[in-house]
Amino acid sequence: MTRTIKRIAVVAGDGIGPEVIREAVRVLGRVRETHDVRLELTHFDWGADKFLSEGVTLPEGALEMLSRDFDAILAGAFGDPRVPSNKHAEDILLGMRRGLDLYINLRPVRLLDERLTPLRNRRREDIDFVVFRENTEGAYCGAGGFLKKGTDDEIATQEELNTRRGVERIITASFEYARDQGRRRVTMADKSNVQRFGGDLWQRVFKEVAARYTDIEANHQYVDAMAMFMVQDPAQYDVIVSNNLFGDILTDLGAALQGGLGLAASGNIHPGRVSLFEPVHGSAPPLAGKNVANPVGAILTAAMMLEYLGYAEAGRAVEQAVQSAIQSGETTRDLGGTLSTEEAGASVSQRIAK
Ligand code: NAD
Ligand code: IPM
Ligand code: MN
Asked: Is the pTM of this model over 0.90?
């Protein structure tokens, strides 16, 4: 992170990935003109097409190259109906998350305009929290197997891995963030009433870490109740911390609260190391190739990346431009507008001021 030019690996991926990433890249180009931001972008063609034609998912040596030569990765989405096993997405996306040890999946949930939320009578300040999703273990560890596969007696096991270190570092990161950002409360979501072992570890570690942050209120909810409260009373949340799977589910719900998956941004972060930024949404096959997908999730993701790279002011300028475009109704159809992906990207880009 000491380079003066920040090097970005761009992996647009599948489906709507290339369309939304093109707009995020357009916005980065504009930011280079308006701000003192030095970026060098290198594109990689990893995704379903490459897998289907060459059998290659994440190329050999890719992780080493990314850590050695890049400051950040900007990715679109991975997933293609022609690859029902999702093998390439697992290798590329989960491969980068795990292989680069990107243990924080930071997913902000922020209402940019009151008209966007499906909830009634909510103000912008009522929906403004961040989710810290554990990103390297849990149900995503890939452990499990089959016995007697294909028979009536088949058994499939799917294991969940919770390490003391893994749980402690994500919970600590959530409290550090709360303190740093002047947030009041951290709420941990689990299912410790059923998941007696992993849940017990999360409970114990949460209490231990919370005791080190007496200035931050520590609060616990079962994840099923949290799903309800996120709809009924989202204003109570500042920072949420949860495991990999619950964090995945809660952040699609969070995306809906802020106006839909087309708006939601995320960072897969290991502080001080090359980190991966991608919209929360997937490759949305029904929308792919039609120039209708909302590029704002990808653009706000690029803004998060700018902030991570030390260009906080440029990141804020992008966020303001997004907000201004939305307030003016210059949006794609998912938000009630009439613009294409390209037009929506151009509208944001033009609004970025020095
Ligand atoms: P999805 O997020 O791709 O899409 C679900 C629905 O949300 C879409 O049909 C669409 O209505 C809406 N949507 C999503 N992004 C949008 C956008 N930018 N603009 C407007 N509307 C948008 O989820 P899915 O359909 O469950 O998954 C499709 C594929 O994507 C699967 O292969 C899945 O595994 C993969 N996926 C990948 C990622 C990722 O790479 N990070 C994330 C989620 C899903
Ligand atoms: C996400 C996605 C991924 C996940 C899939 C595509 C593996 O849903 O980034 O939220 O489950 O983490
Ligand atoms: Mn998801």
From this structure: yes
